Every structure is written in structure tokens, then in C-alpha cells.
Amino acid sequence: MENPQDIIRHPGKIVSIDRNEIHVQILSMSACSSCHAKGFCSAADMENKIVDVKNNYQDKFQVGDNVTLVLKRTKGSQAVFLGYIMPFLVVLTGLIVFTTTMDNEGLAGLFSLALLAPYYIILSRYRDKIKERFDFKIQE
């Protein structure tokens, strides 16, 4: 049996269902968005997102149902790595290489930021493989 601390749970609402996928709307909140002072702070961040879940549930759910999405915590760590840490490392490495090989620091900074374009193009090309690795499930 899995340790409950190894699972990420997120409440959501089913917005549409097709043959292959169930589309669940979740409210993504930053840590400060639930703060009592969020009305006075521009850092509060709440955003609705649609998560696609493989439809392996054989008509158990309907549009409008409130559900809980689950994902293994290790998968969440991998997503953070691909979405935040790896782009940071690409920019940092590029900045180090370009500043040591160029005299113009401004151009070195621009070139290192430009390295993000190929990184995100590669991510988008492998989107389907990455999507398979981060398989959300609906808790029954």
C-alpha cells in the first residue's frame, strides 16, 4: 500500500468527457492566494486549469461531478524539474559560457535567454511522451 504522503491530491470538477479523455478543471493557487491579506497583495495567484485524464472509467463520471485528481509525488517532482529547474540550468549554463566567450554581457544575457526557445521546442515535440509520464488519475 502506498504512503498517503507520497500522493498529491487536487480537487476538481469535470467540465467535459470524450471517448479518450476526461477534462477536469482545477483551481491552481499559489501559497499566498489563500492568505487573508490577498486582497491587498498583487502576488496572490489563482488560475483555473484544465487537466486531461485518460478515460478508463467506463461511464462512472458525468460532466459537473466534483472529483479528486491524484498523482504520485515523485511525478510532481519530475514536473518541477522539467518546468523550472532545467530551464534555469539551461539559462545559467548559457550565461556562463557566453560571458566567458563574449565581451558584451548584454548580448550574452540575450543569447542565454534565447536558449530557452530550443528547450521549449524540444519539450513540445515530446509532449505526448511527457504527458504519458505524468498520468493523473481520478480517485474513486
Stretches where pLDDT falls below 50 for ≥5 residues?
A: none
The multimeric state of the shown protein is single chain
How many structural units, i.e. domains?
A: 2
The average pLDDT score comes to: 81
* Order of secondary-structure elements: EEEEHHHHE
Could you name the key traits of this structure?
single chain; about 140 residues; alpha+beta; OB fold (Dihydrolipoamide Acetyltransferase, E2P); 2 domains; 5-stranded antiparallel beta sheet
Helix/strand layout:
Layout: E1 7-17, E2 21-29, E3 46-54, E4 66-72, H1 73-101, H2 105-114, H3 116-125, H4 127-133, E5 137-138
Antiparallel strand pairs: 1-2, 1-4, 2-3, 4-5
Helix pairs in contact: 1-2
What would you note in describing this structure?
- By secondary structure, the protein is of the alpha+beta class.
- It has two domains: 65 residues, OB fold (Dihydrolipoamide Acetyltransferase, E2P) (Beta Barrel), CATH 2.40.50; 69 residues, no CATH class.
- Helices cover 40% and strands 27% of the residues.
- The protein contains four helices and five strands.
- The protein has a five-stranded antiparallel sheet.
- Strand 1 and strand 2 form a beta hairpin.
- Helix 1 packs antiparallel against helix 2.
- The chain is elongated and about 65 Å long.
- The chain starts with 6 loop residues before the first strand and ends with a strand.
- The mean pLDDT is 81.
